[in-house]
Design goal:
Elements lengths: L7 E5 L3 H11 L4 E5 L2 H7 L4 E6 L8 H10 L5 E6 L14 E4 L4 H37 L2 H5 L2 H20 L6 H15 L1
Parallel strand pairs: 1-2, 1-3, 3-4, 4-5
Helix pairs in contact: 2-3, 4-6
């Protein structure tokens, strides 16, 4: 998702009234797609979808099965299970990003979608940061200080790394120095693995 595009939310819900309610709540802020079954949901799913709101209990292909197929396809979307099923230990093996128990309210749905979109943007920023830091470290290990200081592309790279550190630091709650920042990022990547 880029900053100029309207985020796409796919609602996969077998109860038409519930799906339409979610659509009404979200349509002013997002491009909303709707699917009435797991199979329809998978057919609607493509690289443009940013967030999937997925009912867990549907006839035919269940939400659990749809979620597994979404993850198998390695699409870059976030999935919120929106369900009347109370969570149990089986959720530990599931690859969802949020779990909402019905009934839900408009504000709760908006906050969940917004949080998932922010998390996607953060993940993209973190990936860019790691890539640029790796390039910076490689150049610093092989080039002299004078060579680095004279190279405009390297200086732009350093500026972008500094910008990303500032943005990520703000997201992580205001880490004050580079060592704390790097330690926090390493801790996050260890958790993600």
């Amino acid at each position: 998702m880029t900053g100029s595009e309207t985020p796409v939310v796919l609602i996969v819900e077998d109860e038409p009234d519930v799906a339409e309610t979610y659509n009404l709540w979200l349509a002013d802020d997002y491009e909303v797609r709707m699917a009435g079954s797991g199979d329809e949901g998978l057919a609607e799913l493509d690289d443009e979808v940013d967030v999937v709101l997925l009912d867990r209990m549907m006839p035919g292909l269940s939400g659990d099965e749809v979620l597994a197929r979404i993850r198998e396809r390695e699409l870059d979307c976030r999935v919120a299970m929106v369900t009347a099923v109370e969570p149990d230990f089986d959720i530990l093996e599931m690859g969802f990003d949020a779990y909402l128990c019905k009934p839900i309210r408009s504000q709760q749905l908006h906050e969940t979608v917004e949080n998932l979109l922010e998390r996607s943007a953060y993940d993209d920023m973190l990936q860019e940061y790691y890539s640029l830091v790796e390039k910076q470290a490689t150049l610093e290990a092989t080039k002299s200080s004078a060579e680095l200081a004279d190279n405009g592309e390297y200086l732009e790279l350093r500026e972008r790394v500094d910008e990303l550190e500032e943005d990520l630091s703000g997201t992580l709650g205001g880490i004050d120095d580079d060592e704390d920042f790097i330690a926090t990022l390493r801790g996050l990547s260890d958790v993600e693995e």
